[in-house]
Amino acid sequence: MIIPIPFLAARLLYLPEITLLEGSGLIRAYERGTRLCRNRLANAIETGFLLLTVWAAFILGAEVLGRAVQDDLLSFPPPPTRW
Question: Strand, helix or coil at 2?
Fold first, then answer.
């Protein structure tokens, strides 16, 4: 079950753009995304992993910045850790 997830995510990578720009339905947009990624599947999987990495970096950066503002700038006591 875990093995097909990157391949499905690669096919769904361009789904919002295809749906918005071409005005097609969900099934036609999925078929178009499949055709786009058929020859460039490795590039699409790499793009998906890089996108997840950027999202994780932004989440961690926001957490660190929020803690710094709370502790140093506003001088609020830090919340208890969940870990």
Answer: coil
- Convert the pLDDT of each residue in 16-29 to its tens digit: 888 888 888 888 88
Q: What is the rounded CA–CA span in Å between residue 75 and residue 78?
A: 9
Three-point CA angle 80, 82, 83, nearest 5°: 120
In this structure, what DSSP letter does residue 74 have? Answer: S
Q: What is the DSSP string of 44-67?
A: HHHHHHHHHHHHHHHHHHHHHHHH
Per the listing, tokens 């990157």 go with 6
76: left (phi over 0), alpha (psi -120 to 50) or beta: beta
pTM attached to this predicted model: 0.65
